Amino acid sequence: SNAKDGKSTLDEDDSGDIVQQKTQEETLFHEETIDLGGDEFESEGNETVSEDSNNFVDKLNEQMMESVIISDSPNNSEDDTGELGCLQEMVEQMEAKSNEKTQAEVDKEEFLSNESETEHEETPKDVSEIGTDDQASLKEESIQEVVKEEPKLGNNVPVQTRSNIDESKPENQISSPSTSKPSPEPEPIPVCTIFSQANNVNTQPQLFPPDGFQPQMVKSPSFSSIIETPVKSNPQVVQPSPSLSKFFGDTVSTNTLASDFFDSFTTSNFISLSNPNASSSVPEQMSSLSNGGDSSCASSNPTFSVGSGRPEAGGPPSSPGITLSPKPFSQIQAVFAGSDDPFATALNMSELDRRNDAWLPSEETRNVLISVATQQYSTMFIDKENLTMPGLKFDNIQGDAVKDLMLRFLGEQATVKRQVLNASSVEQSFVGLKQLISSKNWRAAVDLCGRLLTAHGQGYKKSGLPTNHTTDSLQLWFVRLALLVKLNLFQNAEMEFEPFGNLDQPDLYYEYYPHVYPGRKGSMVPFSMRILHAELPQYLGNPQESLDRLHSMKIICAKVLENLEQGLAEDGSMTNITQENRQASVQLWRSRLGRVMYSMANCLLMMKDYVLAVDAYHTVIKYYPQQEPQLLSGIGRIFLQIGDIKTAEKYFQDVEKVTHKLDGLQSQIMVLMNRAFLHLGQNNFAEAHRFFTEILRIDSSNAVANNNAAVCLLYLGKLKDSLRQLEGMVQQDPKHYLHESVLFNLTTMYELESSRSMQKKQALLEAVAIKEGDSFNTQCLKLG
Amino acid sequence: VMRLTKPTLFTNIPVTCEERDLPGNLFNQLMKDDPSTVKGAETLMLGEMLTLPQNFGNIFLGETFSSYISVHNDSSQVVKDILVKADLQTSSQRLNLSASSAAVAELKPDCCIDDVIHHEVKEIGTHILVCAVSYTTQTGEKMYFRKFFKFQVLKPLDVKTKFYNAETDEVFLEAQIQNITTSPMFMEKVSLEPSMMYNVAELNTAGESESTFGSRTYLQPMDTRQYLYCLKPKQEFAEKAGVIKGVTVIGKLDIVWKTNLGERGRLQTSQLQRMAPGYGDVRLSLETIPDTVNLEEPFDITCKITNCSERTMDLVLEMCNTNSIHWCGVSGRQLGKLHPSSSLHLALTLLSSVQGLQSVSGLRLTDTFLKRTYEYDDIAQVCVVSSEVKQS
Predict the structure, then answer these.
(1) Which residues of A touch B51 (CB under 8 A)?
(2) Separation CA A255–CA A765 (nearest Å)
(3) Cα–Cα distance for residue pair B301/B299, rounded to 1 Å
(4) Fewer CB within 10 Å, N- or C-terminus of chain A?
(5) Do B178 and B223 touch, CB atoms closer than 8 A?
(6) Which residues contact B375 (CB under 8 A, 6 or more apart)?
(7) How close does chain A come to B269, measured CA to CA in Å?
């Protein structure tokens, strides 16, 4: 509540001037209308802004344009009854407050005695303060005063009607004479001012909720000793210098250590340690992620994992501005039996791999890849800028906001009960990772990804260091970044995405590692990671960049489809593909194109460019015809949001024509839901409630209908009923209904209901603690 | 107390992956399990879950201020005779918004009295919602407390107008309406309610019913739209058109808009006034004139001369030739007496000696009573072409 205090002080300061002016007048004219002070400036300011933003041509026009005063009631009655007493009172009280420290005691008394002359039935004991921050919720600005209507001297006892009296500010209790006769010795007045908890709702999504997680570059202690040496000896690690070999030497040791660690958990029974060469004859298996075929390739061959760092492999000292190519791979080449054989190579490339990994590199990247392919045995030098050198940008973001809140509000005793998985409590492998994700412990999962990547040599502070990529390392990055986005940690995600550039560097293609992935073509970057990469800027306030990225993805997807239609392979090469496989491939790429369009539509919606967004959603329908009813409903809701009820209605009618695409129950629900929304748009909450309730009759577990019906109840003035409905829902199936939006509504209503909302919120926290993982967004509990 | 703006729809952040990716279908499954997503179309960002307003937000002139007032008994005692009063104090008046003024007999612990108030805001500036509660405790003590909630009412629209006066007594009104709020605004209705003297025709559709604004039915923040109206004086007033002088009331604009989930707002402008073009004492207007004429060939025009003054005039017409315009006929002829508000029609013949767009100028009317001369230049333009061109 410190913030609140600060704010109210400001408010006082703000109104101070007005108050001073007014008080002087006040003492003279009691019935005068109080000018509520400098507020008009705000609207006028608006006007100025609007004019400023006009361009010059408009300005010229404006000379001829006449500004029109808008007023709904042109003749506002000026007949002011004595009702203004209240305002006077308030002003006086503000005055009284500013004089709190009793410097102007005399003034005040004069004042208050005046007051009691005007106000006959009430004793002037009200202390009030007016919150001026119109952004904040009304209920947070309230200052309550309790006044006893007993003008008798000496009979005044402070009244405590609220339990959270401890929050009251004692200094706000002004002493004032309680009779109209100014007495030299002011009596303590029976006033208690209760401030409700300052709960400034932050409308902007906070990137870093105040849960103790700061995106600071924290270095993992466990890893620091390894990195320190190279960093110290070589502050600019990538600057080639005579000590480069030393640096590489260091990296070797690092990587060796890392790969040891990597081994230690890859040897789990889950990940097969089989020789990749052996498994290469079964390409399906190799490509399948779950069996970790590719990572085993890395771990089973230490030479490979330290590849680029080996000084002896590089031969001559590297020249400035370049780094070593994956030349050392040639040394393991010997173990790849039959990789010289073009037929074997062709076999290695599985149908699925080709289909999924296909991507069209840029001209520049393509050239590099071709030269890698053609100069297999000679040392290749590639510009450092063309390499992808990712590394963790922060370490240990792990934490548990729920637990922190429990410590704060429920005490240590209760906190012990909170048991969630963390990165160390699961198997250090993909299995453990999946376990963390599905138990909604995404923060821990991010950490585990970090550990696994560290083992891969792409750990903290490894950004900018040469490294090799495997299918798995990129998948790990994808999972980590996707989870960061899911946790709304967009800035962190952006930082770690940065080294990947536009995901088109040559070392992200299989062709770059002809000996590790003989014959395999395409990009290692998962398609979903590209989507994630493209979508990210829009969450950071740069939707235009998102659109650009999505557009270039769209072009490539369309080109791939075109290639397929022309009888070529995805990448445009002349490969024989069976009809069946071609069909499957077309299907995959169509759905990918649809996914890109989906993201575009979402992005446009975020930009509030509704016309284009609606167009884009129409396009999505072409790619996902089975989602037509949902998408048309969505478009209808967009129009509802704009306020265009008629068009919304038209779309909802269209939905009813296509609901045969859904099963009976689902279509019934959708029609009812849309009707309910339409009634909402027409301000008819009672009807909307009826339809939401109707849905509950056929599907009692429908969370949306449940929640929305409760919201309608509130608008109908039935707070208690609404609360009962939401509470019942949460108790009935906490696993599903402890959702952010539901809890947010619930806490909002608790706040409205009573100033004792804290207890109920804490009860919710306990419920959350039992069911939810560390990824729970605690902001919706509004406990802050 | 909580302001009841319309609820908003929850949006989620879709993160998807493909079957072959490391998490398998985990991400997709997580999204399916999320109650806020649209089932069957989880990637759709705009969900169906309603969330309550998170802050007071902005309130604009013409919108309806709705608020939930809940009086909750936090104590463990029953209180009696509870009277809840909600007033809205504006800079000029104080309104009572409570639905009922009857006292509630008793309020048990942990129970509440609920009221939802609505008020269409009609003033800009500071408003204060004053909620006063009085009650009696078990011991018979009369208690009273008040709460104040202050908010600002802002201006939602910027309206600018411009008038064009046509020769035919029609008036064209151009109105620019700018959305100066921070959210998109759907313009449900923008109409001109004419004053009694005029009939209005809206010129905002192209063809049958297609709006000139196309499919974009809403105004983004800071966007401006231009509406055009044509006003024709009604027959009974048109007769006296010459008499309409000085400031005339044209009518007012009625604007209805909707924002989030049908939150409605309505405003009217004050009466739009225009300065009728000053015609002086004598008005000369053209009734007929050809648009294209042949070089050096005479053509006819018809003028209407109206006496706009309060007195009778005796007029003499003089015609002065310019470089290009040559009047045919006698200059200085008597037009006779013209009474106030009456008019006469006059056929004149002239020819042009120069090709191109020529201005008809050079008419002079002299009122012999007051010896006052009125000059009429640039009455109209004609296009003068050589006769060969016109024939071919």
Answers:
(1) 711, 741, 744-745
(2) 44
(3) 7
(4) N
(5) yes
(6) B363, B364
(7) 5
Using a CB-CB cut-off of 8 Å, the residues of chain B touching A640 are: 261-262
Q: Is the dihedral of CA A435, A441, A443, A444 positive or negative?
A: negative
Report whether B55 contacts A136 (CB < 8 A).
Answer: yes
The H-assigned helical ranges of A520-642 are 527-539, 543-565, 579-606, 610-623, 628-642
Show me where the domains of chain B are located: 1-55, 60-154, 157-275, 282-385
Give the closest of A42, A73, A707 to B49, CB-based: A707
Whether the pTM exceeds 0.80: the reply is no
Number of Cα atoms under 13 Å in the Cβ half of residue A86: 24
Topology annotation, domain B157-275: Immunoglobulin-like (2.60.40)
Q: Which residues on chain A are in Cβ contact (under 8 Å) with B193?
A: none
Q: What is the pLDDT of residues A687-732, one digit of tens each?
A: 999 999 999 998 888 888 888 999 999 888 888 888 888 888 888 7
pLDDT of A184 above 80: no
Query: Domain locations in chain A?
Result: 542-623
Angle at A421 between CA A495 and CA A491, to 5 degrees: 15
Contact B2 A137 (CB under 8 A): yes
Domains B60-154 and B282-385 share a fold: yes
What would the pLDDT profile of B219-248 be if each residue is shown by its tens digit?
888 888 888 888 887 776 665 545 555 557
The alpha-carbon gap from A102 to the nearest alpha carbon of chain B, in Å, equals 25
pLDDT tens column, A572-597: 777 777 788 888 888 899 999 999 99
Which one, of A208, A219, A259, lies nearest residue A463 by Cα? Answer: A219
Q: Do B46 and A605 touch (CB under 8 A)?
A: yes
| pLDDT given at position A600 | 93
Place of tokens 């050589």: B386
Q: Using the 8-state DSSP alphabet, how is residue A317 labeled? A: P
Which residues pair with residue B347 across a beta bridge? B302
Show the tokens assigned to A354: 């080709």
Distance, CA of A271 to chain centre: 33
SS3 A16: helix
- The matching CATH number, chosen from 1.25.40.10, 2.60.40.10, 3.40.50.1380, 1.20.120.340, for B60-154 is 2.60.40.10
Count the neighbouring beta carbons within 10 Å of the beta carbon of residue A178: 25
* B-chain residues near A126 (CB < 8 A): 146
Q: Which of B21, B147, B253 sits opposite A144 (nearest CB)?
A: B147
| A734: closest chain B residue by CA | B35
Pairwise CB contact (< 8 Å): B145 & A682: no
Q: Is residue B262 within 8 Å of B202, Cβ to Cβ?
A: no
Q: Are B346 and B302 in contact (CB under 8 A)?
A: yes
Give me the pLDDT at residue B342, please: 80
Q: How far is B358 from chain A (nearest CA, A)?
A: 28
- A643 and B116 in contact by Cβ < 8 A? no
Beta bridge partners of B318: B364
Q: Do B261 and A485 touch (CB under 8 A)?
A: no
Within 8 A of B116 by CB-CB distance, chain A residues are: 715-717
Closest C-alpha to A772, from A489, A434, A431, A421: A421
Which residues sit opposite B267 in a β-bridge? B255
> In the A/B pair of chains, how many CB contacts fall below 8 A?
390
**Domain B282-385 has what CATH class?**
mainly beta
Instruction: Say if CB A280 and CB A300 are below 8 A apart.
Output: no
* Contact assignment for A83 to B123 by CB distance below 8 Å: no
Q: Minimal Cα distance from B173: which residue of A?
A: A65
Contact list in B for residue A680 (CB cut-off 8 A) is: 6-7, 50, 261-262
- In the chain, the amino acid numbered B73 is N
Helices (H), A197-292: 221-233, 244-266, 276-279, 283-287
